[in-house]
């Protein structure tokens, strides 16, 4: 019943979908950057470009939100979603920028695994946001929240395990600090994916 009562304006949903396309694209670039392990400047610039494209979408959503009296979902939920989605890409771009700046000679395989976990979480977020416009598949949205939570927990384990190894093996304190910076940014991206899942789950539970 809820979906039939929603305003028919799909503006917010369309732009959320476009943000998610940018999100997945940006993280794919980050993963490729880590897998290649060299030539960091070009992919870092590509992610920055994608992040700027997403920022335009953020501005359009916020601007429309201030001008729209009746929104398809609660306006605070829209505001929270747009900011958390933006955070995920910002954190990914930040990690890429650090890698380009630090120019590591070798990439720990666990770091690639961590970025892959972030990518899988972002893909689930993209699917979840795509289902939000009508809520007819609320059961799948709930399933996705569980999957995203799994990826968030996995990312935290990978980060902690890799840092523990680096503390044991890395002789250069500055390199250790650099890797902690990079890993924290990527892992925080999975936290923000979990935030999106929690907000979306709340929308479903309140309106179905």
Question: Can you put this structure into words, describing what you see?
Answer:
The chain has helices at residues 2-5, 11-36, 41-67, 75-102, 109-131, 138-169, 173-207. The protein is globular, with a radius of gyration of 18 Å. It contains seven helices and no strands. Helix content is 84%, strand content 0%. The chain has a single domain, classed as Methane Monooxygenase Hydroxylase, Chain G, domain 1, CATH 1.20.58.220. It has 208 residues and is an all-alpha fold.
Termini gap: 8 Å
> Any idea of the CATH topology?
Methane Monooxygenase Hydroxylase, Chain G, domain 1
- Characterize the overall form: globular
CATH superfamily: Phosphate transport system protein phou homolog 2, domain 2
* Whole-angstrom Rg: 18 Å
Q: How many strands?
A: 0
| Global mean pLDDT | 93
CATH class: Mainly Alpha
The structural class is: mainly alpha
Largest sheet: none
Order of helices and strands: HHHHHHH
Instruction: Please give the domain count.
Output: 1
Can you tell me the residue ranges where pLDDT is under 50 for at least 5 consecutive residues?
A: 1-7
> Portion of residues in helices?
over 70%
Known CATH architecture: Up-down Bundle
**Please, what is the oligomeric state?**
single chain
* Helix run count: 7
Percentage beta strand:
under 5%
Write a brief caption for the model.
The chain is mainly alpha-helical and 208 residues long. The chain has seven helices and no strands.
Write the layout of secondary structure elements.
Layout: H1 2-5, H2 11-36, H3 41-67, H4 75-102, H5 109-131, H6 138-169, H7 173-207
Helix pairs in contact: 2-3, 2-4, 2-5, 3-4, 4-7, 5-6, 5-7, 6-7
């Amino acid at each position: 019943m809820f979906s039939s009562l929603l305003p028919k304006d799909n503006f917010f949903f369309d732009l959320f979908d476009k943000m998610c396309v940018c999100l997945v694209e940006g993280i794919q670039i980050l993963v490729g950057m880590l897998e290649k392990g060299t030539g960091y400047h070009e992919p870092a610039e590509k992610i920055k470009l994608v992040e700027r494209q997403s920022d335009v979408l953020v501005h359009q959503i916020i601007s429309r939100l201030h001008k729209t009296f009746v929104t398809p979902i609660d306006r605070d939920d829209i505001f929270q979603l747009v900011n958390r989605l933006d955070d995920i890409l910002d954190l990914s771009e930040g990690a890429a920028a650090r890698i380009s700046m630090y120019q590591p000679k070798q990439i720990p395989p666990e770091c690639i695994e961590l970025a892959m976990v972030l990518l899988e979480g972002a893909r689930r977020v993209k699917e979840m946001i795509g289902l939000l416009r009508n809520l007819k598949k609320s059961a799948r949205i709930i399933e996705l929240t569980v999957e995203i939570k799994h990826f968030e927990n996995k990312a935290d384990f990978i980060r902690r395990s890799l840092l523990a190894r680096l503390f044991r093996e890395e002789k250069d304190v500055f390199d250790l600090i650099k890797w902690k910076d990079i890993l924290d940014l990527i892992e925080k991206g999975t936290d923000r994916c979990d935030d999106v899942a929690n907000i979306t789950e709340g929308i479903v539970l309140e309106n179905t």
